[in-house]
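INFO batch 0412 | record 1 of 1 | parsing
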Amino acid sequence: MPVIMYSEVLKHLKTTKGSFSITADGIPPFFFRTFADYLCQPLTHIFNICLVLGKVPSIWKKAVITPIPKASCSKSLADFRPISILPTPCKIMEKIVARNILEWIQALKCIPEEQFGFLPGCSTTSQLIHCFQDWKAALNSGKCIEIVYFDLSKAFDTVDHLGLISKLESIGIRRNILSWFESYLDGREFSVRFDDKQSPCKTCSSGVPQGSVLSPILFNIYTMDLPKVLKTDPRISVAAYADDTKIYASYDSSDMSEVQEKLQLSVQRMLDWADKWRIKIHLSKSQVLRLGGIAADINYGVPLDVQQKVRDLGVFLDSSLNFSSHIDTIISNATRTLYSVLRNVHSSDISILLKLYKAYVLPILEYCSPLWNPNLEKDILKLENVQRAFTRILFYRAFPNKDYPRALPDYKTRLRILGLKSLFYRRVVADITLGFKILRGEVRLNTSRFWTFAPSNTRRSSFNLRCLRYCSSHRDALRNSFCCRVSRLLNKLPAEHVVSMNSAQFRKFLSDVDLLDLVGCEDFA
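INFO prediction complete | emitting tokens
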């Protein structure tokens, strides 16, 4: 690992959040940010000495945990999410070490391509699109798919330290850097703060540190051999996002029994691997989803519930790959959140209400939208009605008028005044942006799995994206899938904007044009 430079430490100090939270060392983060220029040099020396000696100061390994409820009604300890507050110097050093370790594992390519969690160019969206592409190809070929979802219970908290050190050593982490990790993991303590009370310190003997940027990287290293263990046959596929792991396989009547045996073996290997590396699997929460027409009845040797609908990385999937139930769910959640915000915030300030809407409601409506972007008008309008209701209520508050609702501007006018775009417009932008990033190689998805390039027959474009043959099915789930939808949109853009731009230029181009007019779509505003 190279010597830590002043400039890198200074950059992290100046971007530290100006929080007044008291950490275990008694120094709030705002102090480090305020006096960054003075603290930069001594901290850099301390960091480099820590690496040379392979030691981490004990005070840096003490975390103050604040329990945050996962839901509005939290009745047990399991309903709370622990948020760790760590000393600022430790967080800065973790960021520097994390960057170097990430570069190292990327150079070695030791993290398997089946892992999509916390890696550059990867996201939940890219993983789901990758899997959906496999599933729709199998369905279009008349095959069935068996998907097994494993629930790893508190996986980050149960990582065995000795096992993790052995895996770090196996990828070439040696001598003082390995000693630094041993010191970093050993003797960690935490206390819990609730209101103005704080518990005594307890020792944490397993797991990767809560709230650390190093934790996801260390977990990926800890589980890097899992996909190879689970792939008992070329027909078995594995997809993981951190601790969310699933296996799936497609089959028809000719090889159904053979594939079922391989799936059974993969499940058993998962249990054996978890037992060896001290990861607990919640079998009661592990699930099976079956796609296709053949009624398979696979005995996995352990109780696994077969579901008609599962939640996969926050997106609800059913056995027909229809996203209507997912859309209904997010509309319900977004509406409930919207009215909760409006009920508790009595301000009529437009900027405040817009910030709250964009922070709490929009993410619910747009999470993973390239995967489930609807083509049915009823679903498009139902989604749009959430924003329609918000703009209407905002106008009632910010621009009171005794002639409402007769004098209320129409939805399109309200959007223009508030500087908003329709949700339909935003989903088209999200589709095109992700498609552009895939073409540029900025997202870890193989372009050849989605499209082929063909000579253009028009003067407008210099290339023509074509979906693979199985993407052009007459089934709605396939015809409206991401790759087919995006190829139609990208082919309508002027070629010079797609070929010659980088991501920043492309985003600016999209913000400067009427995109729907350019691609020939009608807005639903």
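INFO post-check: The two ends are 54 Å apart (CA to CA).
INFO record closed
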